[in-house]
Design brief:
Layout (H helix, E strand, L loop, with lengths): L3 E4 L2 H10 L27 E8 L9 E11 L28 E14 L2 E15 L4 E16 L5 E4 L12 H7 L4 E15 L2 E8 L7 E2 L11 E11 L4 E11 L6 E10 L3 E8 L3 E9 L4 E10 L10 E9 L1
Antiparallel strand pairs: 1-7, 2-3, 2-17, 3-4, 4-5, 5-6, 6-8, 8-9, 8-10, 9-11, 11-12, 12-13, 13-14, 14-15, 15-16, 16-17
Length: about 325
């Protein structure tokens, strides 16, 4: 923009470079399908997960993200195999057991929202994952995510200064900015994501790509370009079974979105008797924090995480909070 400079919280500019365009969460090691649809259905349960994250508290208009996930495995009923020409003296039982098939599939849905400064995004997506079990230890999965993202800009939360004289309030005149805020600052964009994962015993490694279509497919009359770019994720980890009652899950996530620098996240979470879990997570040059949770019942789990900035923002921020509720049917 030539005549006006748009300042949307300079700390958020640096934060968004680190966090990239998609919502970021701390407890991703236990909610891996947020980044990779191939992880859908890995717990072989019908699940609903609700989570929210509030970060960089202390600045005002801080980034706030939330998600609602649903997933359900599709089971194949067994079909009795018999020869109708063979005479039998007993009736054929009504067998409703699930087939011991090497292939399984999971369907799901995802709602997510993300607000940072004057920008906001809301997305609805359908998810699908197919799993093929080669052996009891080796399983290959592939996933698909198709969604629509509504991206918007709230001019009331932006501070615009006159370049020639910053003390004078901006009163219009920059054609690009004026058009951006003249009821055209909201658009719907098709998002496509793909992912795959290999599970070998307690080891897993997966890769995913999101926002593959970028801005190429849009809906509505808006001419605003939100400059969406593709995000790439590499996730790997190992589940250490140290004792019968204690295991440790380690997870490493590498994220890349050009032109932002590569991002690295590491988490180590201990699980005590499948009742209590606690651990630490670290986002390189961004945040460090703790994760704690409790299995309230066999069906209901609650997790909480707190993270503090590990860079210069720590002088002005009170950290961030995240709460995740999970229910299994």
């Amino acid at each position: 923009m030539r005549l006006a400079t748009l300042f949307i919280f300079l700390f958020l500019v640096k934060g968004c470079i680190q966090a990239q365009q998609m919502p970021q969460f701390s407890q991703v090691s236990m909610n891996r399908s947020l980044y990779n649809p191939a992880y859908l259905g890995y717990e072989d349960k019908t699940m609903i997960t609700l989570g929210g994250r509030w970060q960089m508290i202390g600045f005002g208009n801080e980034p706030q993200s939330a998600f609602l996930n649903f997933e359900r495995n599709i089971k194949i009923k067994a079909k009795p195999i018999y020869n109708p020409a063979m005479h039998i003296s007993m009736p054929i039982p009504d067998d409703n057991r699930t087939q011991n098939s090497k292939f399984s599939q999971t369907f799901g849905g995802q709602l997510s929202s993300d607000k940072y400064g004057a920008f906001k995004s809301f997305q609805f997506a359908g998810l699908y994952a197919g799993h093929y079990k080669f052996t009891n230890s080796l399983k290959l999965s592939a996933g698909l995510k198709i969604g629509i993202s509504n991206n918007g800009f709230d001019a009331d939360k932006a501070q615009v200064l006159n370049v020639n004289n910053p003390e004078i309030e901006y009163q219009g005149g920059d054609t690009e900015y004026d058009e951006f805020t003249a009821e055209k600052s909201n658009t719907n964009i098709l998002n496509l994501g793909l992912g795959m994962n290999i599970q070998f015993g307690d080891f897993f490694i997966g890769a995913a790509a999101n926002q593959l279509t970028k801005n190429s497919i849009q809906f509505g009359r808006s001419t605003v370009n939100f400059n969406l770019t593709s995000h790439f994720f590499l996730m790997t980890g190992y589940n250490f079974q140290l004792t019968e009652e204690f295991k440790v899950l380690t997870t490493v996530v590498v994220k890349k979105m050009s032109p932002a620098p590569t991002s690295l996240e590491v988490s180590v979470i201990g699980n005590f008797g499948d009742v209590i879990f606690a651990g630490v997570n670290y986002h390189h040059k961004a945040t460090a924090g703790v994760i704690v949770g409790f299995q309230v019942s066999p069906a209901f789990r609650i997790g909480y995480s707190f993270d503090a900035s590990s860079n210069n923002i720590i002088q002005s921020s009170f950290g961030g909070h995240e709460l995740v509720l999970n229910y299994r049917f």
